[in-house]
Amino acid sequence: MFEEHHVRSATPEPLLALHNVCADVIEDGASQRLLHDVSFSLQPGRVVGLAGQSGSGKTLTCRSILQLLDPAIRINGSIRLRGDELNGMTEEQLRTIRGNDIGYIVQNPMNALVSVHTIGSQFVETIRTHARCSKKDALTLAVQALESVRLPDPPELLKRYPFELSGGMLQRVLIALTMCLSPSIVIADEPTTALDTINQYHVLEELERLRMNQDVAILLITHDLDVIAEMADEVIVMHEGRIVEHNDVLSIFNRPQHSYTQELLRSRLNE
Ligand SMILES: Nc1ncnc2c1ncn2[C@@H]1O[C@H](COP(=O)(O)OP(=O)(O)OP(=O)(O)O)[C@@H](O)[C@H]1O
């Protein structure tokens, strides 16, 4: 059993608030609902874990927030960032929000980096599209960020190409890149799934430091309930595109209410 302790009470104004978000896919003229009235909010400095088996709608929920969806998918409902509605914003407005306000860390960091450019040029390019600064200042910022995720020899690392680094190093590079943009929210979609145990530990530690040092709100998607137990303040359990349970982490693990949450916890114990 997990030890009970007081969970910090929520502040009144959420950083991000989803209200009745629905996603429908239109295929061959027919519409199928993939997300059903998803509602929750994120507060600064808190980690919300999103759990549920494969196909339950976790990634779709993240990508709805970022409005990074297949054109066949339509979103309804409200997604507010500090009160501003994201649903319906122009692509240009959204591009500013992605990175500046909301960082996105994905399972396979290779997909987020361009293989033919050095790590350094990608840092400079990304930093300079979000903030007005010289190349030299961008490189200084990159070195500091790489040092803070404890990667060895950052100046040398900046000269290397993504394919020259391991998955764990790349994931930490991506976290460092995200840190340079100082987002208030980080969405981490299965950030440790492709990593070995040691690298999993390092990546989770860096996410924890982001939350502690920069008061970042983290939406952590993982099928790994041990990671959720370790990191999250609250847990949202999704099943077939719906939120079936949302509670603080101790209540979810000690007193799960929904039969699907109970099943999910039982399957973890049997693993
Ligand atoms: N572009 C799309 N067209 C049709 N169906 C889609 C599309 N994208 C997602 N879906 C469906 O929506 C449902 C939710 O998918 P989603 O990727 O959010 O699941 P998930 O919980 O993240 O699963 P996993 O853990 O395997 O990544 C699935 O049934 C999936 O097949």
UniProtKB/TrEMBL annotation:
* Sorted UniProt keywords: ATP-binding, Cell inner membrane, Cell membrane, Membrane, Nucleotide-binding, Translocase, Transport
Where does the record say this protein resides?
Cell membrane
The family database entries (Pfam families) matched by this protein are listed as: ABC_tran (PF00005)
Q: What is its main location?
A: membrane
Q: Which SMART domains match?
A: AAA
Q: What is this protein called?
A: Nickel transport system ATP-binding protein
The annotated topology with respect to the bilayer is: Peripheral membrane protein
Superkingdom of this protein's organism: Bacteria
- Any GO MF annotation of the entry: ATP binding
Query: Which lineage is the organism of this entry classified under, starting from the top rank?
Result: Bacteria, Bacillati, Bacillota, Bacilli, Bacillales
Q: Where is the ABC transporter domain?
A: 16-265
In the record, the note on similarity to other proteins reads:
Belongs to the ABC transporter superfamily.
PANTHER family for the chain: ATPASE AAA-TYPE CORE DOMAIN-CONTAINING PROTEIN (PTHR43297:SF14), OLIGOPEPTIDE TRANSPORT ATP-BINDING PROTEIN APPD (PTHR43297)
